[in-house]
Amino acid sequence: MSRIDDILVVGVGGQGIILATDVIAEVFLRAGHDAKKSEVHGMAQRGGSVESHVRRGEEVHSPLISPGAVQVLVAMEGLEALRYAHMVSRGGIILYDPLEIPPLAVATGQSQYPEDLSERLSLYSAKVYPVPAFALASELGNTRTQNAVLIGALASLMEIPDTLWREVLSRRVPARAVDVNQEAFALGSKAIVRGS
After folding, report:
1. How far apart are CA 1 and CA 157, in angstroms?
2. Domain span holding position 168
3. How far is Cα of residue 75 from the mean position of the Cα atoms in its chain?
4. Rounded Cα–Cα distance for residues 21 and 54 (Å)
5. Of residues 103, 170, 185, the one with CA closest to residue 140
6. Domain count, the chain
7. pLDDT tens digits, residue range 162-177?
8. Is the CB of residue 11 less than 8 Å from the CB of residue 76?
9. CATH code, domain carrying 144
10. Model pTM?
11. Is residue 1, in this structure, part of any structural domain at all?
C-alpha cells in the first residue's frame, strides 16, 4: 500500500468528527511525523456539515488539503461523502457510512436524498468502501462509537500498527468508554472487504 498523508474527515455536527481527527493527528505525531489539522464547523451544533483536514509529512506547512489531493475521504454520512467527493485524488479512497441524515432541504421536501449514492461516488474513485459504522456502533449499544468504527477502517488501510491507534484512541475517549470504543475500532478494522 502507498503511504497515506492527506485525510479529510466529514459528516454532520455531533458525529465525533473532531475527536476522529484528533486521534488521527496524534497517531501521526506519535509515529514520528509532522502533522497538522484544521476543521471547519459550519452549523455543526445544528447538524450542519463539518469538515476536518489532517496532513502529515516531514514538514507540513498548511493543514488544508487542496481539492483533488485528498488520499482518503472518511465520511460519516452518505450525502456528506458526495458533497466532498470532488476533493479526492485520482487513485484516492472513499470510506463512507451509508447512514442517511437528511439535510433541511430534504426534510422539508424541497429536494430528494440521492438514491444512487454509491454510483455517484464511484465517478470520483474506483476505491469506494461503504462501512456501516452507525449500524455496527448500534449493535454495540453505543452509537457514539461510530467514529471509532471508521477510525478502525482507516487504520486497516495504513502502515501504522494497530497498537498505536488503539493506544491513542484509549487516551482520547472517557475512561468509561474505552472498552466499547476498542470494540468499535476492531469492527471497523474488519469492515472493508478487500478487492471490492
Report:
1. 8
2. 6-189
3. 5
4. 7
5. 185
6. 1
7. 999 999 999 999 999 9
8. yes
9. 3.40.920.10
10. 0.91
11. no
